[in-house]
């Protein structure tokens, strides 16, 4: 204990000691109490008071942490916060710097929902292959919600504005409380049994985690998953995912959004049809113009010109090839003719007649016609024939000289 008589403390010194003791002693604490004087600032920070019957304490939650809170805090709500104790020396006050906030008992609810989610997932209620396609233009819509709730009014307003010819069947059911889950499940089954519509919208506006529990009941999830009529889950909440969202064929963020999904604005359809008509017309005109330009190329004059442009190079190549062939053939003929002349000259030069013209003669036996090449083969008295280049003579052998 401090001896108060031994030392005089300055206010800041005393406050510093208090701050050191409190902040080091309460570094991580959980406090439960009722929200009071809740004041969100323009910067996103939250300032509030936590109280019970006998005391109160100031609290603050800065923007980075408040964004993760799963509900919209309001005065009178019982909440549980986690944080650290801090002393504000200039005011001489202390407060809780909160790092998280949840509704009192919310943690138990979330744990229960997680267990239920795993159980229903194992049963296949959330499988994507179970989900059905929504009808493009439904003629009748079933709405299962509270008959006095804002969700139903929002749905009817949107459907009336966007598609006034759409039939709406309202099956009333409470959307919170102990019996809500049984009623919602029964109405989904009733809509299927009597085939009351082409699509079902079930949902409600926003609320606390506890308020939304009926849409996570096992009976509701089972009825949605087994529904032959496509189901849209339209629970207007921001952060929490109710289990009906996972089982439904389509999840809408709000009831109004669900109504917009199943309805089709005639004006929007008219605009789309007009746009498509104009687009088709423009494309047809463009195609027609291209065809006309192409056809213009097929006049007799153009065809003749185009044909001549194609064949003229071929004609030129043919003429060139012809001239080249003639030139080659002419050269070949000249070479061959020259060779013939040479052969002829050689032949003439080696001809016996040419030899005879040079003064030679051919001697042959007058009876047999056999050529005599040597005097040794002649006999006295033998008649021979002597052939000159232009004439011949006969002679008788009188003797031989070796």
Main sheet strand line-up: 1-2-3-5-4
Secondary structure category: alpha/beta
Tally of DSSP helical segments: 11
Secondary-structure element order, N to C: HEEEHEEHEHEHEHEHEHHHHEEE
Oligomer designation: single chain
The overall number of domains is 3
Gyration radius, in Å: 60 Å
Largest β-sheet summary: 5 strands, mixed, barrel
Distance between the termini: 176 Å
- Strand elements, count: 13
CATH architecture of the largest domain: 3-Layer(aba) Sandwich
Q: CATH homologous superfamily of the largest domain - what is it?
A: Succinyl-CoA synthetase domains
CATH topology of the largest domain: Rossmann fold
Q: Overall 3D geometry?
A: elongated
* CATH class category of the largest domain: Alpha Beta
Helical content band: 40-55%
Mean pLDDT: 86
Strand content: 15-25%
Query: Runs with pLDDT <50, length 5+?
Result: none
């Amino acid at each position: 204990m401090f001896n108060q008589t031994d030392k005089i403390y300055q206010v800041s010194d005393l406050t510093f000691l208090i701050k050191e003791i409190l902040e080091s002693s309460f570094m991580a604490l959980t406090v439960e109490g009722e929200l009071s004087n809740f004041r969100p600032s323009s910067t996103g920070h939250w300032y509030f008071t936590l109280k019970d019957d006998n005391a109160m304490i100031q609290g603050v939650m800065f923007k980075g942490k408040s964004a993760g809170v799963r509900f919209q805090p309001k005065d009178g709500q019982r909440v549980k916060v986690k944080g650290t104790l801090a002393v504000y020396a200039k005011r001489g006050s202390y407060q809780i710097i909160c790092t998280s906030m949840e509704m009192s008992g919310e943690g138990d609810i979330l744990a229960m929902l997680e267990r239920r989610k795993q159980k229903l997932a194992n049963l296949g209620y959330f499988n994507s292959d179970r989900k059905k396609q929504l009808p493009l233009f439904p003629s009748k819509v079933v709405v299962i919600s509270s008959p006095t709730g804002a969700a139903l009014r929002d749905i009817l307003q949107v459907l009336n504005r966007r598609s006034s010819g759409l039939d709406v069947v309202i099956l009333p059911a409470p959307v919170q409380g102990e019996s809500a889950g049984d009623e919602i499940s029964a109405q989904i089954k009733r809509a299927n049994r009597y085939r009351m519509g082409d699509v079902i919208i079930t949902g409600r506006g926003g609320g606390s985690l506890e308020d939304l529990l009926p849409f996570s009941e096992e009976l509701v999830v089972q009825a949605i998953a087994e529904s032959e009529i496509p189901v849209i889950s339209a629970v207007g909440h921001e952060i929490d995912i109710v289990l009906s969202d996972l089982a439904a064929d389509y999840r809408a963020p709000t009831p109004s959004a669900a109504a917009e999904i199943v309805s089709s604005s005639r004006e929007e359809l008219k605009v789309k049809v007009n746009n498509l008509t104009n687009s088709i017309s423009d494309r047809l005109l463009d195609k027609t113009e291209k065809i006309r330009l192409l056809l213009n190329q097929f006049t007799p004059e153009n065809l003749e010109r185009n044909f001549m442009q194609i064949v003229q190079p071929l004609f030129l190549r043919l003429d060139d090839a012809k001239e080249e062939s003639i030139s080659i053939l002419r050269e070949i003929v000249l070479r061959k003719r020259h060779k013939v002349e040479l052969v002829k000259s050689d032949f003439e030069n080696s001809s016996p007649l040419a030899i005879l013209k040079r003064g030679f003669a051919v001697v042959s036996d007058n009876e047999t016609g056999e050529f005599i090449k040597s005097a040794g083969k002649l006999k006295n008295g033998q008649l021979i024939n002597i052939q000159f280049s232009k004439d011949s003579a006969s002679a008788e052998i009188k003797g031989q000289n070796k």
